[in-house]
Design a protein that fits this description.
The protein is an all-alpha fold. It has 23 helices and no strands.
């Protein structure tokens, strides 16, 4: 799996890239076992983000974590994951694909189970970080295996399988997490990895060829790039995850981390363009399809993770749903994908890939615009069709976008392409969630101010409403009129706050829809691959 040009220079005699030689030697059966096993691993790694978020309150209570500190249970996993993704291609060459993937798959399972036995917040943070570091390996390696092992005509099928991890897993995560937590306890959200994880390890063990490790690459590694990238991405991810809670730049902690992120990532960019053997080939970004594909992929990440963030909060805050009820509503953003994604490779052969992507983005955008005019009664029934349309749109986007963006990527650049494509989608998700947290807060304040100004005790309608509520409370056990009037005013204030929240959520869906329209425009700027039937052709 190629990531660095160093590998070619470390041997004086030219030889075929490892993935290419593996492709010629592996039987079709073993090739597909490797693809399915690796995509199963990617699915579990992504699933563990949403499945834990759905049960975060229960976990916090069990280990004695405060509301603010509990966020680090998710943040530690995401920070470790975002750091290891761009390193995976190079480390796979150092330790061999088989060894690197199997070791991290096993570590992922071990630390998944260990998380269920965490006794306090500190233990949970450390265990989740190690689990995220191992899980983060599974995502880009699955993508790399697909675009290097599979023949071009078969890559759309592999990318459709990978789409299950990228779009289906975030959608179905809250459903699984809510069900397990409500019926069996939060520990089972970690135990659920065991059975599919053992299947994954068995498939990878049986399918991947043994290869010697190339530890000499450690001495020739782009260590300045690795260090600056790791520090920069870790700081940036932490800023995005914790910024809203810490009042962004009103916090010295966030300011310092932002400076660290800006300086480190700037140095990383300079190093990557100047060094002879960079960790990542950033020049891939100037290629038309890969560059615009990355833009669309970032916006997809914002919308994908952003909508998965907004909907549960809306259902919990406005409708009072528990985690299992929220999961049942969100199931309709996942179930249709399970049925549609296997059909996407055929659509990619029948139609221009760009049209398939554009239709997907249009449907995804439409599903968000359908939620722009919500009311306080907007619940599971009203969300059904927007969720189904969202599911169809997501199913149509990911595999075709991945195929057209990586069309023409050389074998030696496959690792860089995989790392950049997956890292940028995850970063897009982090940016989307962080932005939406602040956006919801600001828009709620905005709408609350406007509504409060219109609800005046000097208005006849307001006085009538207070009088009716006062009478209601006095007829239901409140004997003192002053107390009843106070309760009436509190009820009106609560109603105003609820309406302001609903309007803020409507604005958030509108913002997501606009972002997806921009992604659609980026899609239209993609160049059609030479061989449409392969969808990943040069």
């Amino acid at each position: 799996m190629a990531t660095l040009e160093i590998a070619a220079n470390s041997n004086p005699r030219p030889q075929a890239p490892p993935a290419q030689s593996a492709k010629s030697e592996m039987s079709a059966l073993r090739m597909w076992i490797a693809v399915v096993g690796s995509t199963l691993g990617a699915f579990m790694a992504v699933l563990n983000i949403q499945i834990v978020n759905a049960s975060l309150a229960d976990i916090q209570g069990a280990i004695g974590a405060g509301k603010d500190d509990g966020g680090w249970i998710s943040t530690s996993y995401l920070v470790a994951e975002i750091v290891v993704i761009p390193l995976s291609g190079w480390l796979a060459r150092v330790f061999s694909v088989r060894t690197y993937l199997l070791v991290n798959a096993i570590l992922f399972l071990v630390f998944s189970v260990a998380c269920a036995f965490a006794a306090n917040l500190q233990q949970m943070i450390v265990l989740r970080a190690i689990q995220g570091f191992a899980g983060g390996v599974l995502i880009p390696m699955a993508f790399t295996i697909i675009i290097t092992l599979l023949p071009k005509p078969k890559q759309p099928i592999g990318l459709a399988l990978f789409a299950l991890s990228a779009t289906f897993a975030p959608a179905i995560g809250p459903t699984i997490g809510g069900y397990l937590t409500e019926n069996y306890g939060w520990e089972f959200i970690f135990y659920v990895n065991l059975v599919p994880g053992l299947v994954m390890v068995g498939m990878l063990w049986a399918s991947l060829d043994r290869a010697p490790m190339n530890l000499g690459l450690l001495a020739k590694g782009d260590w300045p790039g690795i260090i600056t990238m790791a520090i920069g991405l870790a700081a940036l991810q932490t800023v995005l995850e914790e910024g809203n809670k810490e009042d962004w730049f009103g916090s010295d902690f966030i300011v310092r981390l932002s400076i660290v992120a800006a300086v480190s990532l700037t140095l990383f960019l300079i190093i990557e363009f100047k060094t002879a053997h960079p960790l990542l080939n950033l020049r891939l970004l100037v290629r038309r399809n890969f560059g615009f594909g990355i833009v669309a992929n970032v916006l997809l990440g914002i919308a994908l993770y952003g909508s998965a963030f907004v909907l549960p909060i809306y259902l919990s805050r406005i409708q009072g749903y528990n985690s299992e009820q929220i999961g049942m509503v969100l199931a309709w953003t996942g179930i249709p994908q399970l049925l549609l994604i296997p059909l996407v490779p055929r659509l990619m052969k029948l139609f221009d890939v760009r049209i398939v992507i554009a239709v997907g983005f249009a449907l995804f955008a439409a599903s968000n615009f359908m939620n722009v005019y919500m009311t306080g009664d907007y619940g599971s029934d009203q969300l059904f069709w927007p969720n189904v349309i969202r599911a169809v749109g997501q199913a149509l986007v990911f595999a075709p976008l991945s195929a057209i963006a990586t069309a023409g990527i050389e074998q030696e650049n496959a690792g860089s392409a995989s790392a950049l494509f997956n890292m940028m989608r995850n970063l897009g998700g982090a940016v989307g969630i962080a932005s939406l947290q602040t956006f919801l807060s600001k828009r709620e304040q905005f709408h609350s101010n406007i509504l409060t100004n219109s609800v005046s005790v000097f208005e006849e309608a307001t006085r009538l409403r207070v009088a009716k509520l006062t009478t209601y409370f006095m007829n239901h056990g409140v004997s003192d009129q002053a107390t009843a009037t106070h309760k009436a005013l509190v009820a009106i204030a609560s109603s105003v706050r609820k309406q302001a929240n609903v309007m803020a959520f409507s604005d958030a869906f509108f913002l997501l829809g606009v972002g997806l329209v921009v992604a659609l425009v980026a899609t239209l700027l993609l160049k059609k691959p030479g061989q449409v039937s392969g969808a990943g052709a040069h």
